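User: For my dataset I need records formatted as: sequence, then structure tokens, nothing else. Please produce one.
Assistant:
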Amino acid sequence: HIASLVEKVKTTPIDEVIFALSSTMEGDTTNFYIYKQIQDTGVKTSTIARGIAVGDELEYADEVTLGRSILHRIPFENSLKNN
């Protein structure tokens, strides 16, 4: 189905493609492959946020999830606005 997605992005007015595949090696590789296929179209690409879920124990987080959580951290003051 990737070929039909790429064709649709190239032929249809689309503002954004949001990648929402599993955060596994296969999911990340597929996201990257699709990104490379459509990067020259001018369509904005983004991915859903990933990180430590509220209520999860930090000690059980894998290195990739923990690393992404740190890279995409937000100022503490901003976290208070969502409560």
